[in-house]
Amino acid sequence: MASTSSSSSSSAREFEVEKEIKRQEVAIDELNCLSSSRRVYHINGNLFFLTTAEKAKKNAQKQLDYQNLKSSRFVRRHNCGAFVVA
């Protein structure tokens, strides 16, 4: 029963990571449609900061890279059984 519980929680985490990756990809695509000088709001925590679309795109790309790294760690952890990558 414990293995079923850990399996379902790991698949839920994987789903959340994949959902966040899709969200970041959509954000980057939307920012690509704007001119680089266009002013946009960037969310950092609970605060909104006014910035350029180019800076917001760079930040969204960093977030996407982080989520992809997180996803690849999950895959390695999941495929290696008891081996955990921190």
Description of the structure:
The chain is an alpha+beta fold and about 90 residues long. It has a single domain (about 1-80), classed as Helix Hairpins, CATH 1.10.287. The chain is about 65% helix and about 15% strand. It has 2 helices and 2 strands, in the order αββα. It has helices at about 1-30, 55-80, and strands spanning about 40-45, 45-50. A two-stranded antiparallel sheet has the order 1-2. The longest helix has about 30 residues, at about 1-30. The chain is elongated and about 45 Å long. One of its GO terms (biological process) is protein folding.
CATH class reads Mainly Alpha
What level of helicity do the residues show?
55-70%
Order of strands in the sheet with most strands: 1-2
Under CATH, the topology is which? Helix Hairpins
CATH architecture name? Orthogonal Bundle
pLDDT averaged residue by residue: 79
Q: End-to-end distance, in Å?
A: 25 Å
Sheet with the most strands, sense and barrel status: 2 strands, antiparallel
> Strand fraction band?
5-15%
Q: What's the count of strands?
A: 2
Shape: elongated
SSE arrangement, N to C: HEEH
Structural class: alpha+beta
Radius of gyration, Cα only, in angstroms?
Answer: 17 Å
The number of helical segments is 2
Low-pLDDT residue spans: 80-86
What is the domain total for the residues? 1
